[in-house]
Amino acid sequence: MRIIDLSSPVDAGGYEADPVVHEVLTPREGALHMSAEMREHFGIEFDPDELPDGEFLSLDRITLTTHTGTHVDAPSHYGSVAGYGTGVPRHIHEMPVEWFYGRGVVLDLTDAEVGAVGVAYLEKEFARIAYTPAPNDIVLLHTGADQRAGTPAYFTDFTGLDGPAVHLLLDLGVRVIGTDAFSLDAPFGNIIERYRETGDRSVLWPAHVAGRDREYCQIERLANLGALPEPFGFLVSCFPVKITGAGAGWARAVAIMED
Prior knowledge:
Mean pLDDT: 97
GO molecular function, one term: arylformamidase activity
InterPro entries: KFase/CYL (IPR007325), KFase_sf (IPR037175)
Shape: elongated
Largest sheet: 9 strands, mixed
Protein name: Cyclase
Helix content: 10-25%
CATH topology of the largest domain: Glucose Oxidase, domain 1
Organism: Embleya scabrispora
CATH architecture of the largest domain: 3-Layer(bba) Sandwich
Structural class: alpha/beta
Number of helices: 5
Order of helices and strands: EEHEEEEHEEHEHHEEEE
Strand content: 15-25%
């Protein structure tokens, strides 16, 4: 079995629109922290210098959004009301785990321009790889945007899907759509420019808005999709962290294939 990592890191050293704050307590600082916590919460006195080398365990404190690094968007991220089921979109902790392990399909969007591609582009790609996504397939969009991760261009120069393209995949039975870009929609600047030119509200984040009427999940900020040797014939594991009441959860996404 071969496993290919498809995840981007949470890196406080790279550029982020919402900056990441990462505090590291060293093993020595962890010892002092543990001693203070035992005293405060349990009334236990313990001298940290009695520990081997005076050290205990390191500890990390991180401040970030659930949309930092590779993550899965839940239906509740797309809006407060759903046009299906009970009318209440599910949070990430409520999503069925079986959604996030299944057959993978990677589509090549690397020659697309900044903006959003539509149905014709996807159908042309289906024909090129001689495969049309089947129900419950996890579709991954290889845009090449991950090469700009950690820079401002990562948030402005990428390709997404328009609304009809998303609906095409959902009509085929796909429930999870992933991308190596910052968003499944076009970049913010591109969307606003097209909206101001046309006055058409349908260009305002249609890939996300589609999730208000049809339940599906997105995986955003994937990486390394170019390392997949074939466009299908592999499995994807992308289980999101179970955060109660959250609209997204971080994921360690990988492709699994037999050698």
